[in-house]
Amino acid sequence: MPGAGADTTGVEESIALLSSFMSNDSTTEIERHLRALVAAGAAGDRLPSTRALVSQFAVSPLTVQNAMQRLAAAGLIETRPGTGTFVSARPTITRSDFSWQTTALGSMRTGHSVVGTAMSLDSTVPIAMHSAYPSEGLLPQRLIRQALGRAARRSPDIDRPLLGGMPELRAYFANEIDANTAARASGISSDDTIVVPGSQSALISVFRALAQPGDAIVMESPTYWGAIAAARQAGLVIVPIARGSQAPRAAELDEALETSGARLFYAQPHFANPTGALWTAAEAASLLDVIRARKAFLIEDDWAHDFGIDAQVRPLIWHDTDGHVVYLRSLSKSVSPSLRVGAVIARGPALARIQVDRTVTDLYVSGSLQAAALDVVTDPGWRSHLVRLRESLRVRRDTLAGYVVEHLGAETLTHLPKGGLNLWLRFDDGVDVARLVAECLSKGVSMAPGAEWYPAEPPGSFVRLNFSGPHPERFGEGVEVIAAALASRRALDGRKGTP
Amino acid sequence: MPGAGADTTGVEESIALLSSFMSNDSTTEIERHLRALVAAGAAGDRLPSTRALVSQFAVSPLTVQNAMQRLAAAGLIETRPGTGTFVSARPTITRSDFSWQTTALGSMRTGHSVVGTAMSLDSTVPIAMHSAYPSEGLLPQRLIRQALGRAARRSPDIDRPLLGGMPELRAYFANEIDANTAARASGISSDDTIVVPGSQSALISVFRALAQPGDAIVMESPTYWGAIAAARQAGLVIVPIARGSQAPRAAELDEALETSGARLFYAQPHFANPTGALWTAAEAASLLDVIRARKAFLIEDDWAHDFGIDAQVRPLIWHDTDGHVVYLRSLSKSVSPSLRVGAVIARGPALARIQVDRTVTDLYVSGSLQAAALDVVTDPGWRSHLVRLRESLRVRRDTLAGYVVEHLGAETLTHLPKGGLNLWLRFDDGVDVARLVAECLSKGVSMAPGAEWYPAEPPGSFVRLNFSGPHPERFGEGVEVIAAALASRRALDGRKGTP
Question: Chain B residue closest to A352 (CA)?
């Protein structure tokens, strides 16, 4: 019965031939004979009996049985006791059919590519300036190793930690609000603090806990792509208000809250991602006044708390007495992505809602990670690490900014950020950023296209350059590649214009 | 100026008096004098000059300054250079006003107490039988410590791991589907597997990715409280179908899917939480037939994969070729709550949707935790640990079941589960479980009230007893406390009945 099984037969014959070369004994000879019968037969065909094979090949019954066992092990034959031995049904290789899922799942609520370049591209690019994370050399590696090692030896951390987090770690995050400030205390305590596995998951919980699907949320534009994706996942409608290198205007926030009915305003007041912009104290005060007057929440994402260069961060929640500010902070970037630990601070009923959402979402954060994170940030070495880090970031920022001004022109650098990890560049409006980014990537230089940080269409041609990547010594080279790509594109456009 | 500050003054006077007993020197004498002036004065009042005090107390200027410094440090006075020393403004203790949040937040979508007793009660109860987690003694502690220690020394784990998880850990979870099975492979690979920080967060992502708010989801009743809470958080409407100690009936699933239009069926086919029930192969096959015919998804929560006692788990996804089964597994219970790592396995477009939701929700799982988890489950000691664990669970289950039958009656034990961590008890319908649980807790015995596992009203009086807690030697004592509480309640009801 050739046809369906023809290919298989060929393979099996080759294997049988190969094994006959390798051990040309009588077991193999019988095996080869049986394989030929199987290949030629159909499922359910009866094979010769052991007795018949013993007499045909003049061997012992044991030899025949050994050969039979080899074929049985390969799934080619099966023995039904008292009846005989038969050719097995061929395993049919079926392709899976997932097409039913198309109807079952329906169309998507959000678009496809909600994951930013910063996360989706890996870090093996030769000159990587797309990442959102400082390179390993900027992390307190000795402290991390030491802390993880200690956590491994301690017993209580292995047990399930308390909901809300380790009390000492909660106290650390609460006390940080009052650090570097005058005598007046914010009154924020560990009771107001929930430990979270990174601020992204906290963002989602805060959005979900404080708003209903269909509600509006006001956001700066541009702003962190993860916040845009989180708001969409929570079913919220994003109301963007423009910001450049300054804070958004209070009047504009007021109007956005009024017309949309939004109760939430998500913002990064300090060294915002991607622009690096910093609210002044006066801007912060007038925006907070609007928030209070409109009975709204400011969700303060203090992502760059540890990345001040020319300015230090005083969280806005420090000024808040009545629970208008919900504060997010993470150690994933400044301590280590492996110590995926952060905190959310809130007060009043909002705190209770967020806590319930956190529990339902994650139950709790690994006790070992919490213990290790606490160990790092309470080590005396942490403070000195932060001082060194700030100096490294300053040198890196100034170096990269220098190359940008030299090769791309001073007008390209929107401003020199006082902290954070990124420069925000603006090209001529005609520049096709997607093509430019792809062209540079093909030459080994990665950067993040600006459009990803806009809830709607970007009002210009922007890219974000990270200056905390692994190869600061190649910044000049990287910027030259960008400049060359821009120039060749201009030349091309020029040729098109003059036929 | 007495009145407002009267209380404070009293306290300060006492402190001053106390310190004067402890060191009755002239600095303290001046300090006491100044404190009295501050207490009697108002904010902004000028205090006597240093010169005046020097002459009044016949001491050196240094002594006066020391006393002044103590009051300044306490925030009671302030010196304006060239002008003098003044009473500070009293710190006004203002109560925060969070009442505006009531309007801003609106009413709750879900009820208040969505967090089960199993999570919200801590483990310091003398005889704790409420928990959802095995006690420390049942965990592979040496392996965990060793693995965390190794992870601390390895460098690449500190860096941000790949989205979706470490390839080796994904391969481990995929291969586990084919473990202990015949030659036929499920075809599931690491590409179908996403590493998650515990199965609770995976649950939420799966519900959110595969259904829209307002859609129906079919669930066994009773079922895991965390799944009920997660479905509500995703805005889904739960359609419960009854299960006792067996699987739900296929006809009932079919009807529920048809009438509700649900595309999702969430279930725990193996040693379900809380009942410990196990689907037979025949039941599983007919339920899967319904799922396929209705073009629906089975969300298989394999929470007790490592807790088989009389039976081993073969995941239902093993039988699935066309992506109808979405599989969840976690190591948080069997390895350690500190290694908060699990996996979700899915195929087709469903996998892509879940991956996007995971990324937006959490970005990634700590590389150190992933490395440590992989280290534990690939250590030769892990297999032998599982063998010992199974024997421990068998002894604990049989011991606790024996006491239940002896003191509470055989009819109370719904059935002897073939795996898992819990016994599921049913009392006479008249028993008020909430009162019984509270009464036992007051005597140091904790258990989880059955109502928490029902999406609607429970059809009887149930409790869940965990047999993997820290004090198996006190099982008898614990059950006796329950029996006594039941008896005293019956006696009370009897007295009420015969006036």
Answer: B112
